[in-house]
Amino acid sequence: MDELEHFDRVCAPTAARPLLGLTLLVVEDSRYACDAIRLMCLRSGARIRRADCLQSARRHLQVYRPSVIIVDMGLPDGSGAELIAELVIATPRVAVILATSGDSFSESVAIAAGADDFLEKPVSSIAFFQNVILSHLPQERRPRGAREVQTEMVHPDPIAYRDDMAHAADILGGDVDGASLDYVARFLSGVAQIAGDAPLSVAAQDLVRSQGQGRNVGATLARVSGLVQDRLADRMAI
């Protein structure tokens, strides 16, 4: 059932909570990145549900139709562009389809797949988050009159960052093939960038480049794995 069809029966947006009555499905494998969106939804009045991969997102969409969907472009079981292309032709269509990534080059791929807009990570401004969503909603779904401009930035829970490190460590500790190595390197690069963890972000980006250029990744992989273990041991706080 389309959430927007029953929007007026549920609740109307207000100046302080302009996304009241909306449900967002966030398709995001990073708990840290998702926690940032959760906090922005909380401040804005929107409800949030999370899927951590394409398969999970498709299961969600079989049960309900969210008002807004935010799709990470790099997921463990494929590209977010696949899901965006499916959503564009689905009936009823999700009102607002947004793509997100820490890689700005993903924007053209997302827009070509049919995304309404692109959120480059990190996204921490509540006002920016609200403005992007509201700009793609019909006029009758927006708050009437002037609304409060929320200038605060959100700060995700550091425990969620540690959860992401544990996820990466599980992958790195298994049988890593080319595809899984590319995924975990990009995952760590994006999460570390959001968290402001420059050493890990740089190391993960080096791993992405080495992998892409076909170079020996042994030393770089060991460096990345060591940094991940340091964060799990709480020897580095973000």
TrEMBL record:
Entry-annotated residues carrying 4-aspartylphosphate: 72
Gene3D superfamilies (alphabetical): 3.40.50.2300
Stretches assigned to the Response regulatory domain: 23-136
Domain of life from the UniProt record: Bacteria
Keywords: Phosphoprotein
Cross-referenced CDD domains: REC (cd00156)
Pfam family, one: Response_reg
GO biological process terms on file: phosphorelay signal transduction system
Protein name as catalogued: Response regulatory domain-containing protein
